[in-house]
Structures are given as structure tokens and as C-alpha cells.
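Show me any protein, fold above all:
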Amino acid sequence: MDDAAAAAAAAASKKRRRDVPAPRDPPASREGAGGGDDASLDLISRLPDEILGTIISLLPSTKDGARTAILSSRWRHLWRSAPLNLAVDDALSSQESERIAVVSEILAAHPGPARRLCISSIFLGGHHHARFDGWFRSPALGGLEELEFYRGNSKRALPPSVLHFAPTLRVASIGRCNLSVIDAAPVLAFPRLKQLNLSGVAVSEPALLRLLAACTVLESLELMGIRGLSTARIVSPTLRSIGVSVGHYEELPEELVIEDAPCLERLISFGCNGPRTIRVITAPKLTVLGYPSCRFYELVFGLGTIIVKEMIPISLAVSVRTVKVLVLESIGPNLDVVVGFLRCFPCVEKLYIQSRLRKDMKNLGQYGTLDPIECLELNLKAIVLNTYEGKTPDVDFAKFFVLNAKVLELMKFGVYRNSCNQKWVANQHMRLQLDNRASRDARFDFERDYGNCRFYYKKHMHDMWIADPFDRSLCKFCRKV
């Protein structure tokens, strides 16, 4: 390097040193520079009390919230001023008597308001019924927004003091209690309630209709194992999502009738059983239809326009064009049955199929150009085939879509087998004739299905911000197929 270049480099280095800002002293703590255990608070501790209180209220357990008091003197008072998140479960104490004592102490010590109350490990019955009534009237539970009440007694009504929460409750999950008792019918008439889960409760048809009419902003409803109700009739101007199932020990038949639901976007059946009959009369915005169980008997749309019995479409007088996401469970998988559904729902863009393999199934269906399937020609963009084993019935079924879905963008295979290595995947590529695919831009992904044999995830049941509750890619906890 010559002298001129060296001089220029030295000048540039000196300029860079001048441009580096001098380090600043850390800002003084809120409590001053006089020392103390909080002389150098962390950035979280500098947040206002209101924000810190919200953080504490969102911690997963009551113990976690109370333990924040040991962090520093800054946090010592926050738990009592934070919205109460009280979970009465085994994590609070392993003994029921201790849990009861701890809850009474917390409600006496905390001034409120409350965000969430979950009681899942104390039975509603006997002398506990009066104790619950006293807890529900506690000032600490003023402003309650979320109530979860399980392990009750299906012969007992909820304590009347539940009405104490009526002005503020937004989410309610009620299990094993009697809502058919005359005095109990208005208990759940909450004007701000947006989400309601009923599990194993006893309720009559008139009581359910009164309940839905009284919850004037309700958006999401889950009915699971309802007792004493042969027909669940839904009339609601605000409901956007309905999930329904029949438990292992519930009596069949069960019928769900969507009589008038102008805002309904999702109708999902989950669990091991569903209603014997689902009848959709008025649901003009229905976009997601999830019925993964093959055990139902009859599905009727409109006034007899589409009738499906035992997973076989038998009447296709008029198609349903609003449904964009369709979930099916198919034994075989049975290509003829699935194609019949696609003719019923010609505008489906995403198709989920839960396969239950039957070795003797023949899936050699030919695609007739004189009788095209609108869905395959114009709309079907994504397919997820779960419990894929790569056997001949699976391959023939999937190959039909590979060769005929003209606007397909993605097809996922949830591989239900021990090996899903590169050699096996390459063999599947050849057997599925991916080089001859109808959509040249389509992508095909093979991933292990770790025994997760159903698509439905209840935690997304009420997430209306997710357009497709079955799309696991939208949730960071559900990245696999």
C-alpha cells in the first residue's frame, strides 16, 4: 500500500471512531438512584401497573400469578391489583379440602376484578352447592369475563348466583349440570356472551331456544354430549360457528336442525360420534363444513335439495355453492363417495380427507370430460389426505386428483407408517404419476402423521379470525399435517 492510500485509510478510521456515539449512563430507576433492591429495574418492570396486571392475569395458573410477588418489591402488590385468573384444579392443590380452603382465602384476599374462573376439580353437589353460591357472590369475582365450570352434577341446577356474572361474561363453558330446571333456564342469559360450550348438560329443547334467544351477541356454540335433547334446534341471528358431537354414552338418535342462522359460517361435527341427522334449512353464509365421522346417518341441505345417507350422496337436485372448506372421513378411501360430495359442493377450495384404509377398495374411477366436475376444473386448490399408507387403494385414490385437479396448488399426505424416507417418497412420486399432474404448479408434500388421526382441533373451534380452523399451518403449535 502506498503512502497516499495509507493516509486515506487512517483518516477514514479516525472519522469512524468520531462517528461512534459515546456510551450513555443507564436511566435512573423509578424509585430513584438511592439504591434498594429495585435500583436497576428490568424493562418489563418499568411498564405501567395496568399492563403488568394484564400480564399476570394471562399466566396459565393461579400459583404463577401469586408467585410474581417474590420477584421484587415492584411486583409485590401487583397480584392483588391484577385481574384475577383463578383456576381451581389439581395444580392448586392435590386435596379437594385444601383446594376449597385456598379458594376461600384467595377470594377473601383479592379485591377483584376477575378475568377468569375455572372450577374443574370440585363436584357440584351436597354442601358444595351452597359453597359455590357463596363464592359466586364474592366481590372478588366482580367483572368476571370467562367462566369454566366442570365436574358438576347433571341432576343439579347451577347456583342462582351465576346471574351475578351476567353483565360482563364473554365466555362460558358449562359441564354436567341441569339447565332444564325451570329456575335454571334464564341463568345463562348473558347479553355480552360470545362463546358458549355446553358439555354433558341436561337441557330441553325449549330451554335451549330461550338460551340462544337471550344471548344476543353469541358467535360460537359448542354442544357436546347433551342429555335429554332428541333434537337440537338452532335459531340465532348472530351465531357464526357451531360444533356438535355425541359422547360415548349418549343415546342415539340425535338430530341437529339449523333452522335459521343467517350468519353461520362453520358447522363442525367432532369426536367419535355425531348426530344421526343434520338438517340445514337456512344458513346462506356456510363456508366450512367439517363432518369427519362416517357414522352419521343423514345430512340434508335446504328443503330436500341435497340428501346424504351413510356418507353416500343420493339426491343432487341443487348444489350448495357457499361451502369452500370440506372435511370428510372416507372408508377405503372411497373415490366414488368423495367425488359425489364434490358434485354436491362444487365451489370447494380446500378438501380434507381422513382415510380409513380398506384393502379391497377399488379406486379406478375414470374422469369423463363430457361430465366435468366443476370443483376439479375451477376451484379445488388444496387437498390434505390424512392416514396415507401408500398402498394401492391410497395411491389410486390420490392419483385421481393428481391427474384431474387442474388448479391444484398443494396436496399434503399425512403418512401413517413407520418409514417416510426419501426412497419411499421417491417411489410414491413415481406411483402417483406426479410428472403427469394436471396442474403444473402443484406442490406435493409428504409428512409423518404421528397417529393424529383427525383433523379437528377444538382449540381453533372458536377462533373466528382463522378462516379455516383445520389449517394447521396458521397455528405455531400445529405445524405438522
Q: What stands out?
A: The two ends are 60 Å apart (CA to CA).
